[in-house]
Amino acid sequence: MIFHEDFSFQVEETLRPLENLIVHKGKVKRGTAREGMRASLKVDSDRRRAITLNHTGTHLLQAVLREVVGTHVHQAGSLVAPDRLRFDFTHFAPVDKKDLEQVEALVNEKIRENLKIETKIMPVEDALRLGAMALFGEKYGERVRVVMVSDFSIELCGGTHASRTGDIGLFKIINETGVAAGVRRIEALTGEGAYRFIREEERELWEIASALKSAPGELSSRLERFFERQKELEREILSLRDKSSHKEILDLLASVREVKGVKVLSAKVDGKDPKRMRDFVDQLKVKLGSGIILLGGRSEDKASLILGVTDDLTEQFKANDLIKKIALHIGGKGGGRPDFAQAGGADLEKLDEALKAIDDLI
User: Which residues contact 135 (CB under 8 A, 6 or more apart)?
Assistant: First the structure.
């Protein structure tokens, strides 16, 4: 914050368009700033500290990625904010879970080692000879600022950093994704933000465990038993449904009639979705051996018709032609193949009429 008795200015970004020129970009929150005013600058210490932890965490992350993923890793972009860090890097594929876990573990190992962090100003040639990482395409002056995390990480950097890696406290990766061809992104938290994230995950884990009447450490085995029981129940439901379907099919076969020497079965079936009705038609065709089956029912407030013709009759009666004519009775349209067709219409009250219409078409 830049402030004066006549104005206050919230700094949102600091730029360096020229080597010896620093520009503060932000918003005037109060009053009017005029050239020549002598103002005071005050740093938000809590915000600054959070940024330093995330910034040093970013340096550790890049160094560890080069160890675990490969030395082809280079920074392709980054964001260091008070609440999180984001690091974009060159890599040809998603980082697998095992490698991500290793990266996170090694960063936290370096944090626990409480390595000293030093900054030095030196000629750019000397910095590069030391092995300092530099941003590709970035222009540097003759003298540069070098941030050294012991002998583990050396980077050209003008940002603010912690004094020792132990200040970070904790490092937690929360996401890894692709942002462009050959560029991956890792998002992570440090310090208090990482701690709050883990606490929230623990809270959700306890809630899930409580709902399953289990403890967090037993959730895996508990869920395994739960899903196995679910599969057993699904098998039981399928068995009961098959038995019920068998009885319904037998009941339907009792209403088969002959029309001009052709076996015909037309009936209304309640509580069946179109898929179940299609299954019924297939089974009835097998049971009949030769004939025409027309089933009708209600599906999502519409009349639904399914028609099947056994193969021996498709030259004489084509299901797709028959269904188009029958569909007119329910104010709808239909289509399909010579052996199987279906239709839908809005006029539910005419469903019985449609089912009877098959007789006149034979």
Answer: 75, 156
Distance CA 314, CA 124 (A): 86
Query: If one looks up domain 47-210 in CATH, what number appears?
Result: 3.30.980.10
- For 133-147, the pLDDT digits (tens) are 887 667 788 899 999
- Is 272 within 8 Å of 306 (Cβ atoms)? no
Residue pLDDT, tens place only, 215-245: 888 888 888 888 888 998 988 887 777 676 6
Task: Enter the tokens of residue 76.
Answer: 């392709």
Architecture of domain 255-361: Roll (3.10)
C-alpha 311/C-alpha 53 separation (Å) is: 75
**Domain positions in the chain:** 2-42, 47-210, 215-253, 255-361
pTM (two decimals): 0.64
CA distance 25 to 157: 20
Q: Using DSSP bridges, classify how beta strands 21-31 and 7-18 pair: parallel, antiparallel or unpaired.
A: antiparallel
In SS3 terms, the chain reads as: CEEECCEEEEEEEEEEEECCEEEEEEEEEEECCCCCCCCEECCCHHHHHHHHHHHHHHHHHHHHHHHHCCCCCCEEEEEECCCCEEEEEECCCCCCHHHHHHHHHHHHHHHHCCCEEEEEEEEHHHHHHCCCECCCCCCCCCEEEEEEECCCEEEECCCCCCCEHHHHCCEEEEEEEEEECCEEEEEEEEHHHHHHHHHHHHHHHHHHHHHCCCCHHHHHHHHHHHHHHHHHHHHHHHHHHHHHHHHHHHHHHCCCEEECCEEEEEEECCCCCHHHHHHHHHHHHHHHCCCEEEEEEEECCEEEEEEEECHHHCCCCCHHHHHHHHHHHHCEEEEECCCEEEEEECCHHHHHHHHHHHHHHC
